[in-house]
Specification:
Jelly Rolls, six-stranded antiparallel beta sheet, three-stranded antiparallel beta sheet, Anti-ECFsigma factor, ChrR, ChrR-like_cupin_dom, Anti-sigma_ChrR, RmlC-like_jellyroll
Length: about 210
């Protein structure tokens, strides 16, 4: 069960088709396993279609956005069962291999990475798979820009709580954390970064000039 979700504005941008392809992929992976967010996107899609049909008659007030968000939050949750489909099929289609068989490269300590930015044409953002070995700790860090992450396998914990498979995480320069993999399997995430992360540990910060 997913416990961490995209916010309303992010779902609205997704519904409107305004997200980059890597960030939209993170949303799609989350939606495949989250009936709550699927219901909200369905509502947004329906409202968008109505607004397009009535576009010449629509007037927008200063409170329109707040009213729209309240309507979405008040919509009943879709409790229909999830149709079983092969897990990670979008990732497997993108990479052509299983997560465990990818050419991971050790980055720092317990963290390995695989840069897949070249899978997305004409993208200014960096797209990476990150693997934190079971029980391992990532270096303390913050971010120089925005980072969107979805957990593909396993789970990690930080000061904000526990993030399980298919949970959605959005961070920026105001967030500092040190993820720790929990459970008995490696934690693998897909992250989209608008700028490099910034190490904040006493010694690891010396490596910042070498971090992409």
């Amino acid at each position: 069960m997913t416990r961490h979700h995209p916010d309303s504005l992010t779902l609205m941008e997704y519904s409107a088709g305004n997200l980059t392809e890597p960030r939209a992929l993170c949303i799609r992976l989350h939606l495949a396993e989250c009936s709550h967010c699927r219901s909200r996107v369905d509502t947004l899609d329906s409202l968008g279609a109505v607004m397009m049909d009535q576009q010449p008659k629509v007037t927008v007030s200063e409170t329109s956005f707040e009213q729209l968000m309240a309507r979405i939050d008040a919509a009943p949750e879709d409790t229909s069962p999830v149709v079983e489909t092969p897990r990670l099929s979008p990732i497997q289609k993108l990479l052509g291999d299983d997560l465990d068989n990818l050419p991971w490269k050790r980055q720092l300590g317990d963290v390995s990475v695989l840069d897949i930015t070249d899978k997305f044409a004409d993208q200014s953002e960096r797209v990476v798979l990150q693997k934190l070995c079971a029980g391992g700790k990532a270096p303390a860090h913050t971010h120089k820009g925005d980072e969107t992450t979805v957990i593909l396998q396993g789970a990690f914990a930080d000061k904000n709580g526990v993030f399980n498979q298919w949970d959605f995480v959005s961070l920026d320069e105001h967030d500092e954390h040190r993820p720790v993999a929990v459970g008995n399997e490696d934690c693998i995430t897909l992250s989209v970064l608008s700028a490099p992360l910034k190490l904040t540990g006493t010694f690891t910060r010396l490596l910042n000039p070498f971090i992409r």
